[in-house]
Every structure is written in structure tokens, then in C-alpha cells.
Amino acid sequence: MSPPKLLGGAFYLRFAETRPGRCAWWPGASNLRARSAGSATGDQGIFVLRDVFHSIGGAPDWPLFEDVELVRRIKTAGSSCLKDAADRLRRRYIEHGVFRTALLFFLLRFAYWLGVPPQRLKNCSGTHATREDKR
Hints:
- The chain has seven helices and three strands; from the N terminus they run E-H-E-H-H-E-H-H-H-H.
- It has helices at residues 25-37, 50-55, 66-77, 91-96, 98-114, 118-125, 131-134, and strands at residues 8-15, 47-48, 81-88.
- It has a three-stranded mixed β-sheet with strand order 2-1-3.
- The longest helix has 17 residues, at 98-114.
- It is globular and about 40 Å long.
């Protein structure tokens, strides 16, 4: 029997800087959350096969949590996993404070899990970038 085909997934988070300092704990906590919940966020480098992406309706055009919804859709298609590590810069965590940024992400994610629409959460996040600004 051949192993199931990998349709998509994400990478473990790792900061690219050599001196993580105050941020050293965040990748481990993020990876633990991703492993235990079976979900990922955009900073973990989500990947998916093109035909699967189209068959699941792509990523929603939401101001927040489109990445979480995309991973959920990948999982409903049949397969997702976490792979190796993807290096990310820790700029956001340094600029806004590690604890404050982590707490904001946790609270927003919890509210999303409770059913608060992403459009409403965007107003609470302090994030006013549009989808086009992110590109």
C-alpha cells in the first residue's frame, strides 16, 4: 500500500536571526500549537497543490484568518502536515513586544474559534493593511 499523497501543509516556524533574545520562546510555542491543533498560520509558509487549491475554493478574501481557513480547507481535502522549518524575521515581535504580539494573536484566534467574523476581528487587531498591502 502506498503512502497517502500530501496535498498541502505548512512549515515549522523558526526565526532567521541568529540572536533571538526575547523572542526565543515564540517559535516553540507556535509549533506546539500548530502540532496539537493540527493548524497553521501564514507565517509558517503554507503550501498546497494547485489543483487542490482550486478544488477547495482557494483562500477566502478575508482581512484576517484566511490562512487558518485555508489550512482547514486543505485538511478537509484529505491531507496536511507540518514540514521542516521555515525561517521568518521577528520584526513584528520586536516592534510591538513579544508578549503583547503573542497575546493579541491568541485572543484574536480564540475569538475566531468562538465564531467572531474575521471582518469584525480586523477592527480589533490594529491591523489596517488590506490584502493588496500584504502582497
